[in-house]
Amino acid sequence: MKLISVAKIWDASPHNAFTDLVRFKNKLYCVFRQASAHVSPDGALRILRSDNEGQDWQSVALVDVDFADLRDGKLVADNDRLLLFGGGAMHEGKGEGMRSYCWQSHDGEHWFAPKALVKEKEWLWRITPHKGHLYGIAYLCHEHDGYAALYKSDADRDFQPLVEKLSQAGYVNESGLVFDEYDKAICLLRRDPLWQTDERALLGESEPPYTQWRWQATNCRVGGPVTFLYQSKLYGVVRLYDDRVRTSLVAIDRQTAQIEELLTLPSGGDTSYAGVVLKDDTLMLSYYSSHEGTCAIYFAKIAL
User: Fold this and answer.
1) CA geometry: angle 223, 2, 73, nearest 5 deg
2) How far, CA to CA in Å, does 66 sit from each of 39, 70, 91, 250, 278?
3) Is the pTM value of this prediction over 0.90?
4) Whether 121 contacts 42, CB under 8 Å
5) Would you list the domain boundaries of the chain?
6) pLDDT (tens digit, 9 = 90+) per residue, 204-262?
7) Among the CATH numbers 2.60.40.420, 3.40.47.10, 2.120.10.10, 2.60.40.10, which is that of 2-303?
């Protein structure tokens, strides 16, 4: 593993964070939240596009609403449509807690009105396509007794619960979900030490129809997970907390659930929440970090 390049691609707002990256119609799209602070009521989702594999970027859209702070945008290329998923922290008097939304576009520039997804207060955090369906894990941002639900879309892209109690092993929340060549689902699930002492992330696997899961505790705490498969092995880009907070490329052993740090990206402080795109033996990724002062968006290439 070798870092080929890294460049800051956006820092125009006071706080730029929570990224994702996708290839759509042979162009790269990066989404992130821009706002006045990490937690603030004015979050909007900025979308950048690159026509030359990440060398240059231009802003093509700003998605916002007047009733919520938008957070953690995620992009999915769905045939001839680009889908944008995000959470809306509802403004006072506009609803309760968090709502999940989806926007659609045919060009990444013009977006249809948002569609509300799943149940009120549930945050459908990251979406993974597999065999004509979309899968995602929703969690609750506020107090609960441990809750994460697996959702699956139908042909109309409406989401229905597949597993309503995916894990209750503490405050489980953000997830990285992938499917291997044998159709097995693999999930890296974040845990935070709110009321329980064990903060180690969980690694789960399931076979079709993905209603029965086997879970193992990993060896460390992670944040903002995204996972991918390369040469049949499982990798992730996560926030690590030991020593100093940083964004790192890690290998994940599916048998032992051990996480091994392979490469530390230039990062620190408020950081992580990567998006990844594979091209042959090169990993392209977006992430954010505050190691140079203001929280900014970065684009990196790693030789695998």
Assistant:
1) 35
2) 17, 10, 9, 38, 35
3) yes
4) no
5) 2-303
6) 999 999 999 999 999 999 999 999 999 999 999 999 999 999 999 999 999 999 999 99
7) 2.120.10.10
